[in-house]
Design a protein that fits this description.
mainly alpha, 13 helices, single chain
Length: 322
């Protein structure tokens, strides 16, 4: 499976395997992060993951003969990487110390609504149509239900959980902001080159940031499960991202964006079966509302036929750039 494959050169088996990787592996990374941060400090863990993934992609693009990016392109990719990987994915890793992985995936699944909102509010942004606004209202309603307004109003909510949930929403906004920014600044021509720069820069920032806030690895307490989870995130996360890039070249955006609906389902199933996480009726209702809102926003976008990137582009799992 080569990144430059055309649709005609891609077999049905290759496409099916790529979709399976994007659906299942990306959906599983939420639980893998929870396992990793059980005994590993989140920012140092994420930084290590990004550095290893960035090195992998850098070697890949150099062996592929991709042109070396200009300083301006490197600067742009670095800014986007800090927004999307440090302020978004890194924060999600921190928040999963307090928020279950399935719930994290469901909150993040509402990212397209945040994407549309930021695109609307930015200078000379696109004003959403009525159908999109309805989707926004439904999506934020679902997210509110998911976080648990009854517990918030009664004062019985776990403060760490509540702060973690809010942090995940802020992370989604940073991811959406980085996604939009990347469409308006000069980025490396190759997606993999851009990914390599973003990962290496973000990894370096997080590895430096972690110790500044007191993070350190206590090797005596690090579990084998956390180490294996870090390895899984690094290796299989990179493979899933390569599969995603492949699909962007050989399939349609509408088909590729379906991972935004599948990933939360995979995350919830794995979280409840392998992670022992709770999934109650409130979460079920909220998840249906959120995913329905994402579908409505996607439909509204296609009706408008806007040249801008689909809002589902912001729904690339915030914890799964690599």
């Amino acid at each position: 499976m080569t990144i430059g494959s055309s649709h005609a050169g891609a077999s049905r088996l290759q496409v099916a395997l790529a979709f399976a990787a994007v659906y299942v592996i990306w959906g599983s990374t939420y639980l893998a992060i929870r396992f990793a941060v059980d005994t590993l400090p989140p920012f140092l863990m994420m930084g290590t993951r990004f550095l290893l993934g960035g090195a992998f992609f850098y070697v890949w693009v150099r062996m592929s003969g991709e042109p070396i990016p200009t300083w301006r392109q490197v600067r742009s990719a670095s800014i986007v990487g800090i927004l999307m990987l440090c302020c978004a994915t890194g924060v999600v890793g921190w928040a999963e110390q307090f928020v279950p992985s399935g719930l994290t995936a469901l909150i993040i699944s509402g990212a397209p609504a945040i994407f549309v909102l930021i695109e609307w509010l930015r200078p000379r942004g696109n004003k959403p149509n009525l159908l999109t606004i309805v989707g926004l209202v439904i999506g934020f309603t679902g997210t509110t239900i998911l976080i648990g307004p009854d517990q918030i109003l009664s004062g019985t909510v776990d403060h760490k959980y509540f702060i973690g949930a809010i942090a995940i929403m802020v992370a989604s906004a940073c991811w959406a902001g980085g996604s939009i920014l990347s469409q308006h600044i000069e980025m490396p021509k190759s997606m993999l080159t851009a990914a390599a720069v973003e990962l290496l820069v973000a990894g370096g920032v997080l590895v430096l940031f972690g110790p500044l806030i007191g993070e350190r690895v206590v090797w005596e307490t690090v579990s084998l499960k956390s180490v294996l989870a870090l390895g899984y995130l690094t290796v299989f996360g990179a493979l899933a991202f390569a599969a995603y890039v492949f699909l962007l070249r050989v399939s349609t955006p509408a088909k590729v964006s379906t991972y935004a609906y599948v990933n939360p389902i995979v995350a919830v199933i794995l979280g409840t079966t392998l992670g022992g996480e709770k999934f109650d009726a409130r979460m079920g209702i909220a998840s249906v509302i959120i995913i329905g809102a994402v579908a409505l926003i996607t439909i509204a976008k296609s009706v408008r036929r806007d040249p801008e990137v689909s809002p589902t582009a912001a729904a690339v799992p915030v914890d799964s750039e690599v």
